[in-house]
Amino acid sequence: MPKIPTDVARACGAWYFIPPSARRVETDEYLLLRYPDWYEHPLQLFGILPERPLAEVLDEALDEARALIGEVAPEILCWARLTAPSGLDEALSARGGVLEERLDVLARTLSVETVSADTVPSPPAPEGVALRWTDRFATFVDAVRLNTEIFGGTLPPEDALRRLFDEEAEKVRTGGGGSVVAYLDGTAVAAGGVTVVGPDARLWGGGVLPEARRRGIYAALLHERLRYGVAHGARLALVKGRVDTSAPLLRRTGFEGYGQERSYLLPL
User: Are strands 236-242 and 98-109 parallel, antiparallel or unpaired?
Assistant: First the structure.
């Protein structure tokens, strides 16, 4: 594994998704988030950087999480990120944590020339496929629905979708990012998101329904998001790809690996 460059470490450390409706408990040693109930894992623990003994900090964070359970299942998803302290995986396992997912942290530099010259397994727009950004409500709903079908969770109620869409449409138009949805013969079959923050394009939520795979649709979504990032000033693309699915394709399109992040599902 190559040494982690400063820009990749910075971008990865700053990557958190905190919607306005999320509740948070943040200290210098950890970040605890309570997402809305429609998320697959409403309680998540990030950014564990202890200044005290690790066990003490972890137990404090889990106590705080118990106060936020509400109506959701009494469990929490805990992340061991690139900056995780030594022994965190073992400490989570000792408290009943079960490995949920391993993600490769991948990055590549961006420029108009490199994105234009990308070689991908299929053309950016395979035959019968149309790509649409989520600056229209119906497309936004398709993106959210696909995300829940592929990655889990439930579809938010319509009033929540309307509120979320107002922010989404503005972001897409002003260069902050959004999702792009792939339609195969008029049916939404895939989606992927990008968030542009300063020089960084954070790629997330890329997935294709099983019946539409092996057609080059994922590659088309990737290329479209990279083009959007370059057009809005991004010079570094960062993605956390599933080890056995998206990561191999991402490596073939110029991304380089800089380690892994792991999540553990822990009962409360």
Answer: antiparallel
Listed residue (195, 194, 192) closest to 181, CA to CA = 192
End-to-end distance of the chain based on CA atoms, in angstroms? 35
Are the C-beta atoms of residues 174 and 126 closer than 8 Å to each other? no
Whether residue 76 contacts residue 25, with contact meaning beta carbons closer than 8 Å, is answered with no
Question: 135 to each of 44, 165, 167, 181, how far by Cα in Å?
Answer: 29, 8, 10, 11
The span from the CA of 69 to the CA of 75, in Å, is 8
The pTM assigned to this predicted structure is 0.88
Give tens-digit pLDDT for 204-230: 999 999 999 989 999 999 999 999 999
Measured in whole angstroms, how far is the alpha carbon of residue 212 from the centre of its chain? 21
Distance CA 97, CA 205 (A): 24
Q: Which are the contacts of 34, defined by CB distance < 8 A and separation ≥ 6?
A: 22, 23, 24, 42, 43, 68, 70
Phi-psi region of 166 (alpha: psi -120 to 50; beta: other; left: phi over 0): alpha
Domain regions of the chain by residue span: 6-103, 111-234
Which CATH number applies to 111-234? Answer: 3.40.630.30
CA dist list (Å): 160 to 7, 19, 45, 157: 35, 12, 24, 5
